[in-house]
Design goal:
Number of domains: 3
Shape: flat
Number of helices: 17
Largest sheet: 12 strands, antiparallel
Strand content: 15-25%
Structural class: alpha+beta
């Protein structure tokens, strides 16, 4: 009890001491040193080095007059203040206020402030200074923090940044300026959408065209032959760099009247659909009105296409061929047009011949396979519930064909796939008759691969082995473009490796290797958390946990295996028919025709340069 009373007394004493301390001293004993009064902008007669900042957002003629008026007005404005000295009028013409990236004069003015050359910045309004809230407030604060401080006077809003009472007002006005830019951006986008949706396109004239008085594209024949030369050269097999060097050596001027051509200019021209008479509007869009960075439109905005919009310089078939060559240029010889070939009938009906390095879209493989079925595409997995047993045959429903993976062997017919490479086992090579080159065929619906030997001259042929000491050694096949389709088709994780055991079937004259992509082992990379050692975990599909193999009659219905012995070998070696992935007939000129066209134009240009 005594302890509790002691604690209460102690607390009371502490409170009393605090009260005594805050009664303060005798005011007669305190000397007050007054603060310097805040300078009133309108009554400040001190000498100042003044910078004026002016900006107009576009560079058309009307805005140019506005730009000149601002400069004249603020020259007089500074002259009316006897203690002000004009350092410079910093002006950006044709520049947006939402970004500082290209506002060279603004950025130079800020550097001069940091160098101590400026005491005051005068500008027409907050929106002239910056339409970006963050930039406006950030720079005002940075200039205020300098020693000595640099003030900004916004004439329209009557805001002086060095005043302690103006930051809220400035923040509100900067917010309104930014929102005004946002609204203008939205209005501009709506205007563009309405124009394009009604076929009113923006059509600046590319090299090869001029604009008539109505804004229509008309062919400039002198430039058009250069455009034809570029396309003919590329179809013949020249690279963009080689074409650029040729035009430079022939003293051909660019659209901007430059003497030197670049490979990027050539590539952009080869991609320009306007040369085949079409217009594709909104190939790019600007997602952020603040930074004005354009991005490729891959479906984020509506696009509008009009064919036969104007006279063409390049045949549409040649243009489509060029686009295909560009798409696979990294994996195919220049001038070669890659095509998907699909087997039209027979036991390999619906199989698509592929080259692992050719870049086609996943849907193109699927569409190519489906094109030969007239709508009756086989479904997988095969339904064996209604399989009919012939009289005298054993009923093997419920029996499995045991998976080869349950009998591991170092030497098996197998293929291993990663997201970038394909590799076959040594036995696979021997089983196919020691051929150095093969052709791979895929059936997207059945989810199967077939490998056969390559015929002489087949453009889809792949070298899968190299000779060493008289023996063929497996060779890794690079194939990221094709493998991205396989991984997407099967829903595989690209960080995993997959191995599929296959079977060989022959009819005495030829052989195939057959691989079912659904019957696969998965190799999953793993790291031991304790030792940091890397290892691999082998995994199998969940369905394998309850069965030793696949249903016997599912194998019995695999036409590719069961019918092989009864057909001629030329059916297996069928080269297939080309599938046109974009629905346009492509008939490019022959090499001889291209060569003659190129020689004619080059000779004309050389004669003219003499």
């Amino acid at each position: 009890m005594l302890k509790s009373e002691s604690q209460e007394n102690s607390i009371a004493e502490k409170k009393q001491r605090i009260r005594e301390r805050y009664r303060g001293a005798n005011l007669d004993e305190i000397e007050v040193i007054s603060a310097v009064e805040e300078t009133d902008f309108y009554n400040d007669d001190s000498p100042k080095r003044v910078a004026v900042y002016a900006r107009v957002s576009t560079d058309n003629l009307q805005q140019t007059s506005s730009y000149e008026l601002q400069k004249n007005y603020y020259t007089d404005f500074v002259a009316h203040h006897p203690n002000w000295t004009l350092v410079e009028i910093y002006a950006d013409e044709g520049i947006s206020g939402t970004s500082l990236k290209h506002r060279d004069s603004f950025n130079r003015m800020i550097r001069d402030c940091y160098a101590g050359k400026i005491d005051l910045i005068v500008t027409k309004s907050v929106s002239r200074f910056a339409r970006n809230l963050v930039d406006c407030i950030d720079y005002v604060r940075k200039l205020k923090a300098l020693e000595p401080s640099v003030g900004v006077f916004f004439e329209t809003e009557r805001i002086y940044s060095l005043s302690t009472k103006t930051e809220m007002s400035l923040s509100i006005m900067a917010t309104l300026a930014q929102e005004e830019s946002h609204n203008k951006s939205e209005i501009m986008n709506m205007s563009i959408e309405m124009r394009f949706s009604h076929g009113i396109f923006l059509t600046p004239a590319p090299f090869g065209y001029d604009q008539d008085e109505d804004g229509n594209l008309v062919i400039n024949e002198d430039e058009a032959r250069i455009v034809r030369l570029i396309f003919f050269d590329f179809l013949y097999g020249y690279t963009c760099s080689e074409i650029a060097q040729l035009l430079t050596s022939l003293n051909v001027k660019t659209k901007n009247n430059k003497d030197v051509w670049s490979s990027s200019t050539i590539l952009n021209m080869l991609k320009n659909e306007r040369y085949c008479g079409e217009v594709l509007a909104r190939k790019t869009y600007t997602p952020n009105y603040l930074d004005h960075k354009s991005k490729k439109n891959t479906g984020q905005r509506n696009q509008y296409r009009q064919v036969e919009h104007h006279d063409k310089i390049i045949d549409p078939s040649d243009f489509v061929a060029v686009q295909k060559i560009i798409r696979i240029a990294k994996s195919c010889s220049p001038g070669y047009l890659p095509e998907l070939h699909v087997i039209k009938d027979g036991i390999l009906k619906g199989y698509v011949k592929v080259h692992p390095k050719w870049l086609f879209k996943p849907e193109e493989y699927i569409e190519a396979s489906a094109s030969v079925y007239d709508g009756n595409i086989p479904e997988e997995p095969l339904d064996i519930s209604d399989f009919k047993i012939k009289d005298g045959e054993l009923d093997l429903r419920g029996y499995d064909v045991v998976r080869s993976q349950l009998f591991p062997s170092v030497n098996a017919v197998s293929v291993t796939l990663t997201s970038k490479n394909i590799s076959f086992s040594s036995l696979s090579i021997r089983k196919l008759g020691d051929n150095e080159s093969i052709v791979i065929l895929v059936h997207p619906t059945k989810k199967t691969l077939i490998v056969r030997k390559a015929e002489k001259g087949e453009k889809n042929s792949i070298v899968w082995a190299s000779k060493k000491g008289g023996k063929l050694i497996p060779k890794s096949i690079g194939g990221a473009p094709f493998l991205s389709f396989i991984y997407e088709l099967m829903g595989w994780d690209t960080s995993f490796r997959f191995r599929i055991n296959g079977v060989r079937k022959e009819n005495g004259e030829t052989s195939i290797l057959y691989f079912d992509l659904r019957d696969t082992e998965v190799f999953i990379p793993s790291i031991n958390n304790t030792t940091s050692e890397r290892s691999t975990i082998v995994a199998y599909p969940v369905s394998w946990a309850t069965r030793f193999g696949t249903d016997y009659y599912r194998h019995a219905q695999i036409e590719e295996l069961t019918s092989l012995v009864n057909i001629p070998s030329n059916n297996i070696l069928d080269l297939g028919v080309p599938y046109n992935t974009d629905g346009k007939i492509i008939k490019i000129p022959s090499k001889d025709v291209l060569k003659n066209n190129i020689s004619t134009i080059v000779n004309e240009l050389r004669q003219e340069s003499i």
